[in-house]
Amino acid sequence: MEKIKLWNWYDQSFDKKIDDSKFDYYFYKQQATNVYNRQKLAIDKKKKIDKNLFIKAKRLLTNEKKRSLSTLKIAKKNELRIATQTIKQLNISNDLTKLINFEINKIEAKLQESKKYVENYYKLLKNSTDDLNVKKTIMNEIISNAKKVEIQEFEKLVYLNVAKKFYKKTKSLEITKKKITQINLDLSAFENEIIFEKNNLDFLIKTYLHLGQKLKELQNKKTQIVAQVKISKKEINKKYLEDKNNLKIKYKDRINKAEYSYNKDYFEQNQKIKESLKHANEKIAQNKDKINELNKNKLEKIKALALEEKRALKANYLEYKKNLILAKKYYKLYINHQKVLLICNYYEKDKTQIDQLWKKYKNNFLNKVDDQQVKNDYFELYKKIINVYENDNSYKKQVVKKIINKSYNFLIKYELRKNALFHLKSQHWQNLALIKKDSSYEGDFYEVKSNALSQYVIDYSNEINNSIIEKQKILEELFNQNYAKNNLENKQVFQSKVDNLKVDYLLEKAKVKKLAKKKEITKKALVFTNKKLKIDFKEKVNSLKLENPKYQNKLLLKTNLSRLFSKKKLLHKIYQSKILEAQKSIPTENKKYASKKGFLINLILPGLAEILIFKQYWKGILLILLSSFFYLAFVPFSFGLYWNKIGGVQGLVDLGASIHNHEKGITPDARYWIFGGVVSIFLLILVIAFNLSSAIQAYRNGKFLEQGMRPQSWIQTKKWLSKQGFPWLISIPGWLLIVFIVVAPLFASLLISFSNTGFQHEPPGRVVDWVGFSQYGKWWIFRNNGLLTSLFRVVGWTFIWTFSAGFLVIIVGGIFAILVNSHHIKFKKFFRLIYIIPWAIPAFVTIIFLKSIFQADDDSLVNHILINLGIIQKGVNYFSSIHIVRFLLIIIQTWLGHSYIFLLITGNLQSIPRDIYEAGAIDGAKRNRQFFYITMPILINSLTPLLIGQFIFMFNNFTIINLFSGGGPAFLRPTVFLEAGTDIIISWIYKLTTGVVQIEGNTAFASALVILSSSISVGFASYGFAKNIAKGEK
Fold first, then answer.
1. Membrane-spanning residues where (predicted)?
2. Cis peptide leading into 764, omega within 30 of 0?
């Protein structure tokens, strides 16, 4: 049989440390499963990569298909355009007038060309070196020829114009001299001269007949071409459809081949590893007896080794505990000894003797040797040195005392003590490594941990000692500087330099002020220059301070501890990185059924598996505390134990009907029971989801542990929480708020709609029952009472209101934003402030004021103005007409809402880079094209979600309807449901809920309508958001 394998996080495999480990049949089965799982994981990763590549390829092919189809469509249009172009050109054959106009245009173009030819020739001849007489001769000849041509063409124009007049009068293609003389053609003098005086009547007739003949030829030609074009169009469309279908089939085949290719590879690889797993399990089953026999033979030896290791571990632990107590005592002696050495330095005492005695006493103390002579000698000398210090009344004692207190303050003592304990811990880990080195990979792991901690202790101890030495030197230098003879003189010199700098600063400030008075610089430049001068002055003063040795020492002393802790933090990170690397690279002994045990334990009590199986103590404690809170708070509450006003989850069965008793005063409120039941369900779902997620996480960690990979430490968990997990942590409160503030009331409303809450069933006085979908079927029950009419009126006006008010608000706000954003507009800040005012004033104040000015009496503001202007004779009752009130509502909502849209669009307009417009202008795009091709697409992409929200707000805008019109005025033919002319769905539901309309279970019926209206608004919003997201991804 093969050896049992272990894996680390880098996918490296390891053999078990010794062959005397337990050869359990389970481990061989697990080995086969582990190999399969790792191969499956690699295949799945490859599949994910291949799938992403396929999706990219599919997207590229889809885009390429769209481009090809677009190209094909353009080619078809071009072919059709070419085919129909000849027909358009032959439209002159529709009427003789068009043909004559065509011929006239040709002659006029020819005359224009002749004129241009003469002008251009004149310019060329003028700049030539020929003789003037030659130039005149040539030019006269050119002009003479041009005039002859013009005369001929003008005569042709006369014939064509006369023919045109004749055709307009007769509408006939036949012409005779008699007809010409009989008809009054209104000819001009020039036309009379050419036709009649010069006897060109025959030529006119000939020209007219020629035009008629040409018209017939063109008509015949057009008929033939139209027939040909029809055939061509059919062929072009047929070819286009064939090419389009072929193209679609081609790209579909390419996409299918690509998908089949990566699915085939995945399927084949899966089949291969399944066959390998099957073969391995068969081999293990064949050798089952051999494995069990081998395990039985080595069982005694395994037990003996385990017992020996257990004894060694216990002895090592006891030794570690004793050393901890000893280390705490030794730490105090060490601090006192360091203080004595410091006193020796400052009182010039020889410290050789006390150092020698300390070494002897330290060795005896650590080795637990009771040598009273060495101890007495050391403490006798120690007391002598201390007495010298205590009996000194000079300033030196104060200096030494201050240096001792500063050098060995509470924080330094704490760090030294902690470092000593860490040193002891590293030794303990080293002993554990020696014990476990030959039996498992835990020995290697403890060795790495011990070396890392030992190195940290050494490095940090050096840093602490360097910090203490630096502090002592600084304190000594500060003391010498304070008592130096030239200390006062140095202070005066420093102050005089500061004063000089201040004088220079004030002079420069005065100069700038004079320049501002003379208006040589602007106010902004003055403010900026003053700030700059002030900053320069402060920097120069700080530079002077830094040049002062005393200030430098104070600064170093102040930052001594912070620098020490910064170095500690860096060393600690290095230590942690070594541990993390060891966790990833060194495997651990796989545990039996770790995944299943972890799943079951965490399903019952999250966090317990982390402590018992994975040794993640901090994470386990936190999860146990959280799950305990859930078990003690949420679960009892969900079953109605903490609050007698709700019945918990079980209360949803009968909504308190079973305990309802008027005589005993027990009247449970069904509304509380419904909402409490919904909240209880959500709390139970939260607890179950928490337990299930903890169990799944434990199962995954167990799978890793079964393969030999170490579970993640608390350090890794904290690192994940601070980076990838941070968005999840900050999102959880938001999700909970959404669930309990939005989703729970929505579900409560849904449940109420399945009951008969309302008229004749008002809680808590009466019992509420479940009635199923009865409330949703009332439209059929009350159809003869006008419910369908009510619904049609209310829903119709709701959609008109939503879209008209919504679009008008967006259009008005957008126009104002674009106008104010224009660089031609001055006082932009003033206009922006003006446009924000309608939004800044509370809406209900504006609505009440506008309602008052449209009252029916003559003294109302609008009526008063119109009467004084003579437009009306007496006051108009605006609230008596449904159409007027609806119009006023839309205008008022536009006034109230356009400011918000104005702000949104202004912000987006200001965020558009000017470079885009400049690039567009360079490419020749004018302002209108820049607006439609740059501004509009950017605004639509960024504002679509907000605009969808605006429509949803309009759909449910109860405030303005209720305050301005109260839903009125009433319809001429009202129904029993009392819907009015301006009632939208939400305001009508409010009437039904508040008892204005008395029908059985009106509250539940209103809830049903709320659910239906919410479905409409949510549906539209979801569709809009989905389209916007799809557009963004595209």
1. 598-614, 621-643, 672-693, 728-754, 799-821, 833-854, 884-905, 931-955, 1004-1026
2. yes
